[in-house]
Amino acid sequence: MSTSAAERPTGPAVRTVLGDLDPADLGVCDAHDHLFLRSPRLAGQELDDVAAAAAELAAFRSAGGASVIQWTPYGMGRRAAELPRLARESGVRIVAATGLHQAVHYAPEVLERVRADLAGVFVGELTEGIGRTGVRAGMIKVAGGFHGLDRHARYTMAAAAEAQHATGAAIGVHLELGTGAPAVLDLLCGELGVAPDRVILGHLNRSPDGVVHRMAAEAGAYLAFDGPSQTHHATDWRLPDALAALTEAGFGDRILLGGDTTTAGARSVNGGPGMPFLLRHHRERLEIALGPALVTQFLTTNPARAFAADWARPAPTVQTS
Ligand SMILES: [Zn+2]
């Protein structure tokens, strides 16, 4: 059920699966995670169990969590129809995504289906709803490559920029192993005219290059630090130092935190860190390094600003060809 017209925010709002939300009500936010995810690259580890998703949300809620941004894009098993009930029953706000991941995550026929009008698909999912569910996406997820952008990435980002201009939605970017931020910002903000504060760079912790972190923050983008994960164990432990360096340089208002649970085995209900880890040991560790006020800012006011969009503005006509 959508928020009624009377209580719909008139300014910028976060578009959740239950309707548009005053950003001030977002609360403690896991800014990059997944309840549902399916990819040929993660065969046998799909996140597709609704009961497990509900249990994960309940665990996150009891750890003090209030909202989750699911970065699962088009064609990767988002289960949009399940999200409103999960949000209602758990009391956790959920934001869904449109967008497109790297080509390796799709069967060729899935990409073929959307190729002719990708921006139109994104805008439709942000404004009308995903498929026939009526559940609207609240962000656009795209992906770069290892230190560069292939044709698919450039095409996807051009469509994302077009949808961003039409809707105001934020663009969240999967950086492959945390690399390629300069190329992504050159393309999205330099060539395609997206305002830097509408770009959220994900996985930067996987490449603990403090110079690139600072360049991205200086450019005005948001930096979403996520994990932990077994795959990225080699770099995850550098996170407190990376955040300390950014905040000391004056960029505490650019930082977001997420869990990025991508496999069934990583869910807390299956013995992994899952969503609640962010608010238990992870938060505690970061508070020791940075103090509680900053960590609270990373978990509340920063995501409220990053994901809020001015949905109500008259949308320009989307050029689709
Ligand atoms: Zn992710």
Please state the second-level CATH architecture.
Alpha-Beta Barrel
Stretches where pLDDT falls below 50 for ≥5 residues? none
- Shape from CA axes? globular
Work out the strand percent. Answer: 5-15%
CATH superfamily: Metal-dependent hydrolases
CATH class term:
Alpha Beta
Approximately how much helix is present in the residues?
A: 25-40%
- Biggest sheet overview: 6 strands, parallel
CATH topology category name: TIM Barrel
Count up the helices: 12
Distance N terminus to C terminus?
34 Å
**C-alpha-based Rg, rounded:** 18 Å
Topology as a string of helices (H) and strands (E): EEEHEHEEHHEHEHEHEHHEHHH
Strands of the widest sheet, in order across it, are 6-7-8-9-10-11
Mean pLDDT: 94
Bound molecules: zinc ion
Structural class: alpha/beta
Describe the structure.
- Zn(2+) 2 binds at residues 141, 174, 203.
- The modification N6-carboxylysine is found at residue 141.
- It comes from Streptomyces lydicus.
- Belongs to the metallo-dependent hydrolases superfamily. Phosphotriesterase family.
- This is Phosphotriesterase.
- This protein is an alpha/beta fold.
- The protein has a single domain, classed as TIM Barrel, CATH 3.20.20.140.
- It is 38% helix and 13% strand.
- The protein contains 12 helices and 11 strands.
- It has helices spanning 50-62, 83-90, 108-115, 118-127, 151-167, 181-191, 210-219, 233-236, 239-248, 274-290, 292-299, 301-307; strands spanning 14-16, 19-21, 29-33, 67-70, 93-95, 97-99, 139-143, 170-174, 199-202, 222-225, 255-257.
- The strands form 3 sheets. A 6-stranded parallel β-sheet has the order 6-7-8-9-10-11, sandwiched between helices. The chain has a 3-stranded parallel β-sheet with strand order 3-4-5, with helices on one face. A two-stranded antiparallel ribbon has the order 1-2.
- Helix 7 links the parallel strand 9 (199-202) and strand 10.
- Helix 1 runs parallel beside helix 2.
- It is globular, with a radius of gyration of 18 Å.
- The mean pLDDT is 94.
- The structure holds zinc ion (ZN).
